[in-house]
Amino acid sequence: MQGDNDSSVIARLFVDTSLKAQQALKASSSQAHYLRHVLRAQTGSLVAVFNGMDGEWLARVNLRHRSNCSFMVEQQRRPQAEEHGPWLLFAPVKQLRLDYLIQKSVELGVELIQPVRTRRTVVRKINPDRLHANAIEAAEQCGRLTVPKTCNYADISDVVEGWPVNRMLFWGDETGQGTPALPAFREGGRDAAFLIGPEGGFENSERTFLREQHFTRAIDLGSRVLRSDTAAIAALALWQGALNDIAVA
Amino acid sequence: MQGDNDSSVIARLFVDTSLKAQQALKASSSQAHYLRHVLRAQTGSLVAVFNGMDGEWLARVNLRHRSNCSFMVEQQRRPQAEEHGPWLLFAPVKQLRLDYLIQKSVELGVELIQPVRTRRTVVRKINPDRLHANAIEAAEQCGRLTVPKTCNYADISDVVEGWPVNRMLFWGDETGQGTPALPAFREGGRDAAFLIGPEGGFENSERTFLREQHFTRAIDLGSRVLRSDTAAIAALALWQGALNDIAVA
Fold first, then answer.
1. Do B26 and B64 lie in a common domain?
2. Among the four A34, A78, A87, A110, which has the fewest Cβ within 10 Å?
3. What is the reported pLDDT for A249?
């Protein structure tokens, strides 16, 4: 929807090294391919780079070596800022919709992504590298200074057992017994997490287990039956609206 | 995320005819295929049917004729209800993401879907039958009693010129000059529409044109750069949270 303010910057790229002025960086092979063949970058083209720690920097592309693409870091464009956001726990959906869910949740400010296995989860395993790569791509796209942490696929019971004391875990209760999401998010404060169950819903024993935890709260996301990825995106948008930057002038 | 409350109902189907008890209906060829080969329905299997006017009815599948699939309507399950919701005007994105956007917007209660052409819209034409079929499928899935109206692709200026007096048109202003979405939605009341621009953003002349209309209001959807489909879904979720059933107990 938005273009970069500085129209001479042709790409925004995440790098895995520290950043300072006059530093030369080697592009990854996929970055080199993207710059050469998709964007048709030239030596001297300007990119923005970030690493999640040192803010965002301008850098010049160097394509002089045929087998190599590097950047020369010039000046800082934005200082690093903390990007606290909600955590998202979800029973994975199939690949294309999973990619989409990761993209949307990163755009909507998620800080941590935790795929969870529930009794009715159909997806047996997920590719952690693909999850991480998707999170990076979305962070590059949406202007974030951090890439959300992506966790390994884990059983819901294990995730809940190691839960941090002060973080409220909101879970989508499809039986309609949850409280309305928006006021619940406001009351829950800024350390929040969402748990979205599988397409087949939670089993009764899982609902009971969730209700027993003192840090959980069942929420209701409206009268229509939402697919699990829609529920996750709606919850994140509502949370940003209730507590964070969508509602604040 | 949610299953049907009545687990003996194997599908929920939209039909294009009036509904009353003891009426026999012929299934469409795609419904027949879906019932026979995807769901492996039997003669006597129970489905729910709706037509957007007569509520939702239980019906029995009849597969006795090899080349034919029909339903016998039995009793009404839910009376018809009005499903007023916001309108969504959007510059189309490419096909898979467009399908996804339609699905999500129907789940989030949209009443009318209007693809609009702006100066920077890349997509030249869209398939109205596919748009409509996607809206039907999502309405079947999410339990709605109505299928949103899907309009033909039209120029933004034509859509705005014929605008109904009392409906507030919120547009996503990616320059950051809009007002925060949630309070704006609350003030705008229940007759609302959202206009989401193309990936490249609106041109300045389009922004000026939109600002000149007395029924428009520029909104801000937060500090991150949202893709246009994310912006549309976030706006719908926030509107439901601000005015409708996500926030109301």
1. yes
2. A78
3. 37
